[in-house]
Design brief:
Shape: elongated
Order of helices and strands: HHHHEE
Radius of gyration: 24 Å
Strand order of the largest sheet: 1-2
Strand content: under 5%
CATH topology: Methane Monooxygenase Hydroxylase, Chain G, domain 1
Number of helices: 4
Number of domains: 1
Largest sheet: 2 strands, antiparallel
Structural class: mainly alpha
Helix content: over 70%
Amino acid sequence: MKSELRELLAELDEAVSQLRASLASETDALARRDADLLVRITGAKTATLARIEQLEQRRRAWCGFHRIDAEPAGMLAAIDGLGLEGKPLRLQWEHLRSELLHCRRMNHSNGLALTALQRRVRQSLQLLNGRGGPAELYGRTGAAETLAAPRALARA
């Protein structure tokens, strides 16, 4: 029982480490605005997430087979039930959960950065095509001033 769980958690840990590396690469690609790299990284990230999902299904099936609650508290209770032999597994499980939380935060941050980048690109395209709304700027006094209707900067 312990060796199966240890092996499964090790596989999950490896996949989560790959996810973290993909997310770090994604952060870098977003900062450099490298669209080609971003597409490649997204493909790798998607494959890694599929692997994590597969391993999570295996973990839940393992829990079901051993009549263990698959939720985090149930896992900890089962691991703690192993006594001293369960201590390394507890550390492994806690590390895994911490890494997954960190990955969730990184993914959220990258999503916000991507959304902001998309918004800037969309606004730039609208301005270039003359479809942007009136631009609001700040004048010498610090008050907001609205510029006249935009004109197309480029015509095809």
